[in-house]
Structures
1.
Amino acid sequence: MDKDPFKEYIKQSEPNKRDKGYAWHTAIGLQAVDGLKTSKYLIDTAIKNIEGDISIDEAQELLNTYYEENPKADTEDRTEEADKVAVRIAKILSEKAFSFTPNEYISIHKKLFAGIYGHAGKLRDYNITKKEWVLNGATVLYGSASELRATLDYDFAEEKKFSYKNLSMEEIIHHLAIFISRLWQIHVFGEGNTRATAVFFIKYLRTLGFDVTNDIFAQNAWYFRNALVRANYNDLKNGVHETTEYLELFLRNLLLDEKNELHNRMMHISGRFAEVDIERVKVDIESGEVDIRNKLLSFSDTISEKTINHTVEIFSKRGKENCFGRTIVEEITGLKPSGASKLIKLLVDSEVIVPVTGHGKGKYRFQ
C-alpha cells in the first residue's frame, strides 16, 4: 500500500471524498502529538469510509468489534487508543455542528477520550509539568488547577469580543496564534489536551471562513505542538523569549497554502540542532556589528545610538541565516508595533536587511 494513502483523496475534485480524506488524514496525523501510531486495520477501514462503502458510524463499530476480538496484551501498546481517537476525530471533523463555547471544547475532549481516559471531558484537578524536548527538558508553566475554569471562560469571552474586521491576514494570523497558544497553555485536560485543542481549533477556523482541507495538520502535528510550547516559554536569563513566529508559519501554510519550511530542530532552544557552525557565527556577529554601524551611519548621520544598538541586538539573535518579522523585532527590542515597523523600514531603506520570500509575508534577513 502507498505510504500515504490519503494524499490523493485530499486532492480530489469530488468534495465528499476530499472532505472525508482530509478528516481521516488529519485524524490519523494528530496522533503523532502524543507519539502514537495507528494500525493498518484502521487505514483500511478509513479508505472504505472515504470510498462510500461504509458510514463513519459503521467504521467506528467495526473498530470497536476488532479490538473486542483482538485485545492488546501489552499495556504499553497504545495502538487501540490511537485508532479509536482517530475515528472519533474523523467523525467530529465530518460534522457541521459547532458552537464557540467552553462547553463545546470540553465536549470534544469527552467525545474523543470516553472509555479511554477516566477523566474524559473533565477539567484536571492537579497541577502538571511536562518535560519538553524542544525546551531541552524544561517545562511550560501550565494553568493552575484551581483557576482552570475561570481562565478558560475568560479566554473565550475575550475571543468572542475580538473583531477581525479591517485586519490584514498577517494580523489575523498573529491573533489566531496568540489565541490558540493561550488556550492550549491553560491545559484544562490532564491528557489529550493537544488533540482536543487541535480539533476544536479546526472547527473554529471553519466558522471564520477558512477551508482548512489540506494536509498541514496531518503532516506537521508534532511541529504544531512544539510551536505551541515555544509560544509559552520564557528563559530570559538565557535569551529565550516566548514567540508565536513558529506557530504563525504553521498557520500561514494551513490557511494561505504557503510553503514555509517547518522544521522541529529550528525550534530547539539550544540552537544546536540548527546545523550552524557556532564559531563561525561568533565571527559573523563581531564583523556584522561593525558593518551594521557603518551602513546605518553612511545612510544618515542622525541615526541614534539606541537604533544602532537595537539593530545589533536583532542581528546577534538572528544572524544572517534566520529570517524575522515585526513580531520578532518587537520581542527582541521591546519596541511597540509602530516602532518596530519604523525600524524595519529604516533597515530596508539603508540596505542593512532585505525582504525574503518563502517564509511568509513581511519577513527579512540581514545582508
2.
Amino acid sequence: MSTFNEELCVPIKSDSDIVEARQKGRALAIQLGFSGSDPTVIAAAISEVARNIVNHATRGEIVLSGIHESSRLGIQVLARDEGPGIADIEQAMQYGYSSGKGMGVGLPGAKWLMDEFDIKSQVGKGTSVTMRKWVR
C-alpha cells in the first residue's frame, strides 16, 4: 500500500477549519476520481471527525492523502488530536451514544459512510481515527 506524495494537512481548532477540511477532502476526492455522491459522502465523514476534534479536544488535525493498494485507488482521512481520549471506544461507537450534547451519530456515522474505519485512543493522550474510501 502506498500513499501519494501529497498529503494535505488541515489544522482543526474551529468551525471554519471543519469547513476547510470538508472542502479540501471533497476536492481531493474528485481529483482522485470519485464521482456521484462519493465526494459529498467523504466530506460528511470528514465533517463528523473534525467536529469531534473541535468539541472534545479543542484542537487537532485532519490529514488527507490519496492511497493506492494493488489495483485500487482511494482516499485516506486521518483525524488526530491530543485531547482527553476516549475511555470506552466500544460505547463511543454505538449509534446514539453521546458524551456531550450531540446526537451520537458522529463516529458511527463516519464509519458507516466510509469503506474502512479504525480508531485508536488513549485516555489523557488523544485519539486517532483513520478512514478510507475506495474509488468504485
3.
Amino acid sequence: MTVFLNSLVSEWIKKSRSFADWLVWLGAFFVPIVNTIIFLVYPNQILKLHQESDFWNAIFYRSWETMSIMLLPMGIVLAVSLITQIEFKNNCWKQLHTLPISFSSIYFSKFIVLLVMLVQLIVLFNIGIIFSCIIPAVFNSNIPFPSLKLPWQWLLLENGKFFIVSIPLLSLQYLHSLQFKNFLIPIGAGLALVIGGLIALSWKYVFLLPFSYNSLFFFQTLGKRSPEHNILLWSLAYFVLFTLVGYILYLFKKEKG
C-alpha cells in the first residue's frame, strides 16, 4: 500500500508540472468566464434566467450545454493523452519499470490521477458557475444576486451523473494512449471518436457508442432525447470493460516503453 501511495503521489507531482494541469483550470473556467462577459454586456440574458422557476437549474444546464457537448470530451482526450505521454516524451518508461513498483501500481496510479483531475475540473467548473452569477450582480445593480441557498444535494447528484458519463471516454482514451508512442495518434483517434459521437447522435443505436454519452445524456436530461436506455449503467459497464482491457493490454505489452 505504501508503494502504491508513493507512486500515486509521484504521478500527481508529474501531473502538476504538465500542461494538462493548466488544461483543467482553463477548461473549468472557460464557459463561466464567457457567461460572465455575456451577462455583463447583455444583462437581459441573466435576467431571463432569474425569471425561471428554478434559477440554479437554468444556469446549471446553460453552462453544461457547451461543456458536456464539446469542451469536456475534447478536454478529456487532450488531458489523458498529455498525462500518458509524459513518460514517452521524456523516455522514462524503462527507468520507471526498473523501480520496485508493480505494473499494477503504475497503471492504476496514473489512472486514479486522471479520475481525480476530472473531479477537480467539475468542482472548479461549478465554482465558476456560481461566480458567473455573482459578478454581474456586483457590477450591475439591475441584476439581482442569486439565492444563497444552493441546492447542494441536487448539484452533487447532477454533477455525479456527468462524471459517470465521462469516465468511459476517459478509460478508453487511457487505453489507447498507452499503446502508442506517437502523441498524435491517440489524440487524433480520440477527437475523431468524439466528433463521430456527435454526428451519430441521431442514430438509433447511438447508445452503443460510449464516446457520445456526454452529449446524449445532456439531451436526455433536457427531454430532447427519449431515455430509452439507462446511459449511466451503460457508462459504468463500458468504464469497467475499458479499464480491464487497458490493464490487460498494458500487462502483456511486450515493449512498454
